[in-house]
Design brief:
The protein is an alpha/beta fold and about 300 residues long. It has eleven helices and six strands.
């Protein structure tokens, strides 16, 4: 099967699935003439139906069709008739309740009772018809949702959707479109009502004196403080230490601490503890000599 034709068949089956609820495995009604033609063309009937319908299938045959295979004319060799009957027996038997009759009904009359027994013009059981009878396919086109398949020159063909089925599909699409428009209209009305409610709430809040929070207007942002280079603290500390050392302690020429130095020294104790330096013995002697001279002068 060519790619273009298989793509068309896949889309067609998707339309049947969405519109009429077809599901896999598809129930396919096969008549006696279809079995004879596929055997004459050396075709695998089940595999051809799977390729054409793009899904799993359940081939079925009615009681009248299997009786047609048993009652084939004697012009056909017995071996070939046995092969055809064996193929028909591999399919699932669909009861049409015509086995009590002396002669089987035609394929058209049998399918009328199987597909549309109440003449409601609907395919309730979702059958797919694989038939070589032109009258059967013409009748199926008048029933809503009946896909038809046939063989033409050893090629299995699926007919396009009939006008009755296409009308049902278009009606469903229009209904969905109307529902969508109605839902959109209701949604817009609901949004309009919500907007009115919010405006009324704001008016009530302003009347009661409740201040509504105004939205902050964001201006130009400054640089990220984490990305800004930090100032050097070591140089500042060095300058402070140098200035404090000069102002803290001032010794006189005689080695006595002045009043300013003592005050600064008291303040500097809190800043930093300093080790006391012991005076040397020479300084003691100098101070003692100075004291003696002072006493003598007095």
């Amino acid at each position: 099967m060519r790619g273009k034709r298989s793509k068309q068949y896949r889309k067609l089956m998707q339309q049947y699935n969405l519109t009429f609820g077809f599901r896999e495995p598809y129930q396919v009604l096969v008549d006696a003439q279809m079995i004879q033609d596929t055997e004459r063309f050396k075709m695998d009937l089940a595999a051809g139906l799977v390729r054409t319908l793009q899904g799993q299938i359940k081939p079925m045959i009615t009681q009248c069709s299997i009786r047609h295979l048993y009652s084939l004319p004697s012009s056909i060799p017995q071996a070939q008739r046995n092969v055809l009957v064996d193929i028909g027996r591999t399919f699932e038997r669909r009861r049409c309740n015509h086995h009590t009759l002396d002669e089987p009904l035609s394929t058209l009359d049998c399918y009328k009772d199987v597909i549309d027994p109440k003449s409601s013009n609907t395919n309730k059981n979702r059958y797919i018809v694989a038939s070589q009878d032109e009258e059967v396919r013409r009748w199926c086109r008048g029933i809503k949702g009946v896909p038809t398949v046939y063989v033409k020159r050893s090629v299995m063909v699926m007919e396009p959707m009939a006008d009755t089925s296409a009308g049902v599909k278009e009606g469903m699409e229009r209904g969905k479109l109307r529902e969508g428009i109605k839902s959109k209209g209701n949604k817009r009305k609901r949004d309009f009502v919500e907007e009115e409610e919010t405006t009324t709430k704001r008016e009530v809040n302003t009347a009661e004196g409740v201040e509504t929070k105004k939205r902050k207007i964001k201006g130009v942002k400054g640089p990220n403080p984490l990305s800004v280079k930090k100032p050097k603290r070591q140089s500042v500390k060095a300058d402070e230490d140098a200035s404090s050392k000069q102002d803290l302690i001032e010794f006189s020429k005689d080695g006595v601490i002045t009043q300013e130095a003592s005050n600064d020294m008291g303040n500097s104790v809190d800043r930093k503890k300093r080790k006391r330096k012991h005076r040397s013995s020479k300084s003691h002697t100098i101070i003692s000599d100075g004291d003696e001279d002072n006493t003598s002068a007095t």
